[in-house]
Each structure stands twice: as structure tokens, then as C-alpha cells.
Design goal:
With about 300 residues, the chain is mainly alpha-helical. The protein folds into two domains: about 80 residues, DNA polymerase, domain 1, CATH 1.10.150; about 180 residues, Intergrase catalytic core (hpI Integrase, Chain A, Orthogonal Bundle), CATH 1.10.443. Helix content is about 55%, strand content about 5%. It is built from 13 helices and three strands. It has a three-stranded antiparallel β-sheet, with no helix packed on it. The radius of gyration is 23 Å and the shape is globular. The termini are far apart.
């Protein structure tokens, strides 16, 4: 396979997840097919920027958004940097490329009341799926972990004695996140009922489907979306918004930004600072509603 060396580089040297590697591979294969059809070019090493520009125009004409186009170009950038690093090319065709502008959108977190309402609603359902779904919602909100991180959790990652959970983040970087008592109580309740659904192939996975297999990304998204659609009018209702809620609510309560960075598993503080936008928005709302001069 022509791209095998690059794929091994992503897996072994960059420690990228299987999901990320697959996304890079898909983007490269799509681009390869495009230049073959448009320019009769079959060697990615001979590509010039004009060809890449044509691909960008084609993506735009097919209603692909700027953010998605930038992600696809990131895959190409990584590949050509690899070719340059391994001396397979002498010039990077993307050296002077500038990312397309993407409008900044403020992702609105769920309120504490909304999250409380969902958890209260889940209290009424004591079957396997109800208890499991409550454990998922509480764990997202109590730890701020990513959807992919939650899916990969194993039973052995939980340490109730130390009141913590071990999370395997991006680039296989581990972090220990504290657990609060209500979440521990729900997890223990779930683990007890989970025993009736596990199989030989799923003994290690923490969260299972009703069929006894490891829970899927689609199912996790659907769980969060369904429950929060019933109580919230916010546009986005996903696991990632629960991650935003976790960080924003901690920040609102005075938590240190560096501590939130460690809990979220961010590599740099710049990634965490996006959550200050949500806090400032909340601050403006409170200010607007309470300032005496604003009531005149």
C-alpha cells in the first residue's frame, strides 16, 4: 500500500488514534482519486499547489464547509510534511497555503438546571438502559471527558477506592480524573446490573449495549441528544456540549484554568481558554440583568 509508511508514522511516532488515522487516510484517498480524474496524475509526490487549489474549489462547489475543508487540507499538510521529512520531496506544495476563514461560533453549554433535570428524569428509569444512560450523562458532566474516551473506558480504569478514573486521551496520553460521590454511586449501581449483559468479548468494556457489546459512538450521541432535546432548546445537544458545560461551570465557580486544562486533557492552555468565552457571555448576561443603570 503506497501510504503505508505514512500511516505507520501516524500510528507509531505521532500516536494518533485509529479514528484519526482513518480520517487522514480517507482524505488522502479522496484527493488521490480527484487528481487522477482531473489531471491524470497518479503520484502524490508530483502534486503542485494548483492541483490542491482545484480540489479546494471542487469541495466548495460540493457545499463542503470551510471548517471541513480545512480539516481535509490538514491531512494533506501532514502527509507532505512527512514526505519532506523523509526526503521524498524537496518542496512542500502547501508551504504557502493559508487556512480558509471559519466564523467563530460560541457553543452554548447546558445550564446546571438543564443537566439536573435530565438526571432527575433518568432517576425514574431503573432498567439496564436507564441506569447505564444515567451513568453516561453523570460521567460526562463529572469529568468532562470526550465521547471517544468514554467509549474506550474499561472496568479496570475505575478506582472507587481512590475515587478516580483513568482516561486514555489523544495520542494515547493518560490522565487521572477525580470522581464525585453521586457519580460513583451511579456507576456502582450500573456495574451491578451490567453483569447480566456482558459476554466473553465485552468483559473489559465499561459501557455496553443491551446486546452485550461495547457501546458505539452513534449510540452515545443519540443518548445525549435524545435526553437533552426533551428539556433544552439549545441548538447543539451532544456529548461535546456536556464537556463544555463541565469546563464552563467549573470556571464559573472559580476553578483555576490550569486545573481545568489538566482535567480536560488539553496539550496547551490555548485550547482551554475557549471556555472563558462562555463564562464571559454568562457574566455579561448577569451584568445586564442586575446592573441598576440597565433597569432605568
Amino acid at each position: 500500500m503506497p501510504l503505508s509508511a505514512f500511516i505507520n508514522y501516524l500510528k507509531l511516532e505521532k500516536n494518533y488514534s485509529a479514528h484519526t488515522v482513518q480520517a487522514y487516510l480517507h482524505d488522502l484517498e479522496t484527493f488521490k482519486e480527484f487528481i487522477k480524474n482531473e489531471f491524470d496524475c497518479t503520484d502524490l509526490k508530483t502534486v503542485n499547489y494548483a492541483m490542491i487549489r482545484s480540489w479546494i474549489v471542487n469541495l466548495f462547489e460540493n457545499k463542503i464547509g470551510n471548517k471541513s475543508i480545512n480539516r481535509k487540507i490538514s491531512s494533506l499538510k501532514a502527509y507532505y510534511k512527512f514526505l519532506l521529512k523523509t526526503k521524498q520531496i524537496s518542496e512542500n506544495p502547501l508551504a504557502k497555503h493559508k487556512s480558509l476563514k471559519v466564523p467563530k461560533t460560541l457553543q452554548i453549554p447546558f445550564s446546571e438546571k438543564e443537566i439536573g433535570n435530565v438526571i432527575d428524569q433518568l432517576d425514574d428509569n431503573k432498567d439496564f438502559e436507564g441506569i447505564r444512560n444515567k451513568a453516561i450523562v453523570e460521567l460526562f458532566y463529572a469529568t468532562g471527558m470526550r465521547k471517544s474516551e468514554l467509549i474506550q473506558l474499561k472496568l479496570s480504569d475505575l478506582d472507587f477506592h481512590k475515587q478516580s478514573v483513568k482516561v486514555l486521551g489523544k495520542r494515547n496520553k493518560e490522565r487521572i480524573v477525580p470522581l464525585i460521590q453521586p457519580t460513583i454511586k451511579t456507576l456502582k449501581e450500573y456495574i451491578e446490573i451490567r453483569k447480566d449483559y456482558e459476554s466473553n468479548n465485552s468483559k473489559q468494556a465499561l459501557f455496553l449495549s443491551k446486546k452485550g457489546v461495547k457501546i458505539s459512538q452513534t449510540l452515545v450521541y443519540r443518548i445525549i441528544n435524545n435526553y437533552f432535546s426533551a428539556i433544552s432548546t439549545k441548538e447543539k445537544k451532544s456529548p461535546h456540549i456536556l464537556r463544555h458545560s463541565f469546563a464552563t461551570h467549573l470556571l464559573n465557580e472559580g476553578a483555576d484554568l490550569n486545573a481545568i486544562k489538566e482535567l480536560l486533557g488539553h496539550a496547551s492552555l490555548a485550547s482551554t481558554q475557549v471556555y472563558t468565552n462562555n463564562s464571559i457571555a454568562e457574566l455579561k448576561k448577569v451584568y445586564s440583568n442586575t446592573h441598576p443603570r440597565n433597569k432605568k
